[in-house]
Amino acid sequence: MNEYNYTQNSIKALQTAEAMAQENSNNYLTPEHLLYALVDQDGGTIPTIFQKLGADCNQVLSELDTAISQLPKVSGQPQVYASNETSRAINAAAKAMKSMGDEYISVEHLMIGIFASATPAVKRILADHNITKAGFTRK
């Protein structure tokens, strides 16, 4: 993950997602954590785009919270690792950054990465709110 440059908002989202995984006793940082952190950024790009797509961000956050509560838990203060899906999302974000000619991985790139490697729960939540990659990239 360190080989890429990230925008401040991307770093903040990744840190928030990791903290959320620890708080929920999850030892894997999943796309659910990352998507929650992206949608929860006040005045952020992702919630702004989601709202333009007609999504209720509070409802999306509520559904993500439910999905996160159902993830496996470990006792104690877990060491958090990126899940396979999250690693694929970050790699897809890096590819999107390069293909768009950007120098930094932004929250938009992370979202594109989530579309590329969404878990079934994330796919369902996005579909239920009519959030598609095509719609997202048009906004």
Descriptive overview:
This protein is mainly α and 139 residues long. 63% of the residues lie in helices and 3% in strands. The protein is built from eight helices and two strands; from the N terminus they run αβαααβαααα. Strands 1-2 form a two-stranded parallel sheet. Helix 1 (8-23) crosses helix 2 (31-39), helix 2 runs antiparallel to helix 4 and helix 5 (84-99) packs across helix 6 (107-116).
Shape: globular
Query: Structural class per helix/strand content?
Result: mainly alpha
Low-confidence stretches: none
Strand order of the largest sheet: 1-2
**Number of strand elements:** 2
Give the distance, in angstroms, between the N- and C-terminal Cα atoms. 27 Å
List the helices and strands and how they pair.
Elements (H helix, E strand, L loop, with lengths): L7 H16 L4 E2 L1 H9 L5 H8 L4 H13 L11 E2 L1 H16 L7 H10 L3 H9 L4 H6 L1
Parallel strand pairs: 1-2
Helix pairs in contact: 1-2, 2-4, 4-7, 5-6
Short description:
The protein is an all-alpha fold. It has helices at residues 8-23, 31-39, 45-52, 57-69, 84-99, 107-116, 120-128, 133-138, and strands at 28-29, 81-82.
Index terms:
8 helices; mainly alpha; 63% helix; 139 residues; globular; two-stranded parallel sheet
